[in-house]
């Protein structure tokens, strides 16, 4: 027999390639007062498949970050009357951008100046001029690492869905968007039915498989623009932007049916599990938290009415 599991290895390599490919389409925010140079870098990075936003002045920098959501920021240091160092410190002051890679791109040659600039919160220092190939390579690697890292900190280990704090963060963003644009957005709270009994009868490990199966079903049925999170043990939160209540209800009813059709098995025998779902309209509430509470109340109403279905 082969010393390695070849199909698993091939699958892993394919996944790594896909991730690299994804990183080469990374989003770069470029901030430099030298407009000729930024235009050149923009062309170079765009030709390499990346999506680039340029700013020649830092006005509205935090808004641009919130809207464009770059994977990395490339920033000049000397942009009179502004200083890249102060800007890096300002970005770091926002908890949301604590792990956003900030790369200085500067002609500053003095080592001490470079080090003290880095001490203010940036991650790397690239000295200008830089060759096009080196720029592409560096940006690609940093985008790749940044995405890996952000996946690691934002995902739940068992299901790969967003974890508790990141689904709440997504809810906050969607709530802000709803308030600006006024479209319907649905928040759903899901909870597995009689799950304690599943664990008691079939064991915790099989229980975990059931949790994973629901996560996989949700991932398959929902759109890329929906947000899926594991809120707690056997509870999930889903956010459906630009979706109306009747449409969401029908879709979740179908998910309930599909889930209850799945057959699980353990040494104790085969079994089925059901899920209850509560829905609320995010745009009805002035605070995101209130919508979550409303979805939770609808969920418990569903539990009282006999589980395995949707309430709103
Ligand atoms: P209900 O239909 O009213 O929701 O009943 P329930 O038994 O599902 O409700 P309850 O909230 O009382 O129990 C949830 C159970 O989920 C308790 C706990 O043992 C189990 N659980 C929580 N997190 C995990 C997990 O990560 N893995 C497994 N296997 N079980 C978990
Ligand atoms: Mg400059
Ligand atoms: Mg529960
Ligand atoms: Mg439960």
UniProtKB/TrEMBL annotation:
<dbReference type="GO" id="GO:0052621">
    <property type="term" value="F:diguanylate cyclase activity"/>
</dbReference>
<keyword id="KW-0902">Two-component regulatory system</keyword>
<feature type="modified residue" description="4-aspartylphosphate">
    <location>
        <position position="76"/>
    </location>
</feature>
<dbReference type="GO" id="GO:1902201">
    <property type="term" value="P:negative regulation of bacterial-type flagellum-dependent cell motility"/>
</dbReference>
<dbReference type="GO" id="GO:0005886">
    <property type="term" value="C:plasma membrane"/>
</dbReference>
<dbReference type="GO" id="GO:0004672">
    <property type="term" value="F:protein kinase activity"/>
</dbReference>
<dbReference type="GO" id="GO:0043709">
    <property type="term" value="P:cell adhesion involved in single-species biofilm formation"/>
</dbReference>
<feature type="domain" description="GGDEF">
    <location>
        <begin position="183"/>
        <end position="312"/>
    </location>
</feature>
<feature type="domain" description="Response regulatory">
    <location>
        <begin position="27"/>
        <end position="143"/>
    </location>
</feature>
<keyword id="KW-0597">Phosphoprotein</keyword>
<dbReference type="GO" id="GO:0000160">
    <property type="term" value="P:phosphorelay signal transduction system"/>
</dbReference>
<protein>
    <recommendedName>
        <fullName>diguanylate cyclase</fullName>
        <ecNumber>2.7.7.65</ecNumber>
    </recommendedName>
</protein>
